[in-house]
């Protein structure tokens, strides 16, 4: 389907933000807002968001990608993913303003942008959000990182003959051993104390549990952020049964890195997104 791209201005409080709208000739009634994690801007790593937006637009989905306040070409002070709900709301307003036939939106985010999408739903309960596409969501805490490092790094190293040869010869650096001990100490912290220190994960979990739309979860196989997410949601009580959400579609992507770099990897993410959009009844007329 033919589409064209236009530069748009978004107004958020007193700041003007900049975005690019990919607009098909006959857009579907569900549009897509790409939320960009930081520090990053609307193009994305290796032009990831440009290619994603154009692929979705070719299939008939209007897509808006934009810079947060304080990022890229947008005005305002920089802010982190916990403080961008107003920016996301402005993006949805702008998308609907340019294409009034759009009634529902899907929020698409990578890493802490995926987290920002859930935090937006927690804060606003915006009925316009019909779906969430979450690629390698960010849930990091000291304890969750430590558990992930032990499970996916240190345990593998301890099984390697090379590691023990270096240890016996005195070639294993002291900071590596101290890192292992620190990770063990942090991983044994009580869950309750971790939760008090990392409340954004709890808000994400609450939003996930009560979200009645569709969720697409994409996880890269060669990515610690994805591994940490799975470790977190399978061990933290706030996330109990999260992976059994009735409208969840999950795809594990072996070998892919955090940003899904490379043409084949990027195409796979696009394919999963398009298939999911079509299955949830948001295809163009």
Strand and helix layout:
Layout: E1 3-12, E2 15-24, E3 30-35, H1 48-58, E4 63-66, H2 85-98, E5 104-110, H3 112-124, E6 129-135, H4 142-158, H5 161-168, H6 174-187, H7 191-197, H8 199-210, E7 214-220, H9 224-235, E8 248-253, H10 263-279
Parallel strand pairs: 3-4, 3-5, 5-6, 6-7, 7-8
Antiparallel strand pairs: 1-2, 2-4
Helix pairs in contact: 1-10, 2-3, 3-8, 4-6, 4-9
What would you call the structural class?
alpha/beta
Total helix count?
A: 10
CATH class of the largest domain: Alpha Beta
Q: Gap between N and C termini, in Å?
A: 11 Å
Largest β-sheet summary:
8 strands, mixed
Shape: globular
In CATH, the topology of the largest domain is named Rossmann fold
What's the overall average pLDDT, rounded?
A: 87
Helix fraction?
40-55%
Low-confidence stretches: 191-198
Q: Give the SSE order as H and E letters.
A: EEEHEHEHEHHHHHEHEH
Portion of residues in beta strands equals: 15-25%
């Amino acid at each position: 389907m033919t589409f064209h791209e236009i530069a748009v201005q978004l107004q958020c409080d007193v700041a003007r933000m900049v975005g690019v709208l990919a607009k098909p000739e006959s857009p579907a009634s569900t549009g897509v807002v790409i939320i960009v994690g930081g520090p990053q801007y609307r193009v994305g790593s290796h032009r990831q968001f440009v290619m994603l937006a154009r692929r979705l637009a070719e299939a008939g989905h209007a897509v808006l990608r934009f810079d947060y306040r304080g990022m890229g070409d947008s005005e305002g002070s920089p802010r982190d993913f916990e403080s961008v709900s107003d920016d996301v709301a402005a993006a949805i307003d702008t998308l609907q303003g340019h294409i009034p036939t759009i009634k529902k939106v899907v929020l698409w985010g990578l890493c802490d942008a995926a987290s920002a999408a859930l935090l937006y739903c927690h804060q606003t309960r915006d009925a316009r959000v019909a779906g969430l596409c979450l690629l390698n969501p960010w849930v990091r805490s000291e304890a969750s990182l430590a558990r992930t490092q032990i499970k996916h790094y240190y345990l593998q190293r301890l099984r390697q003959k090379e590691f023990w040869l270096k240890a016996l010869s005195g070639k294993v650096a002291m900071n590596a051993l101290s890192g292992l001990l620190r990770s063990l100490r942090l991983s044994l912290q009580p869950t309750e104390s971790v939760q008090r220190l990392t409340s954004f994960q709890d808000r994400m979990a609450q939003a996930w549990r009560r979200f009645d739309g569709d969720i697409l979860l994409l996880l890269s196989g060669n990515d610690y952020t994805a591994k940490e997410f799975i470790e977190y949601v399978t061990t933290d009580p706030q996330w109990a049964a999260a992976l059994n959400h009735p409208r969840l579609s999950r795809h594990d992507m072996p070998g892919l890195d955090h940003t899904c770099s490379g043409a084949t990897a990027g195409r796979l993410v696009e394919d999963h997104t398009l298939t999911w959009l079509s299955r949830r009844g948001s295809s163009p007329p």
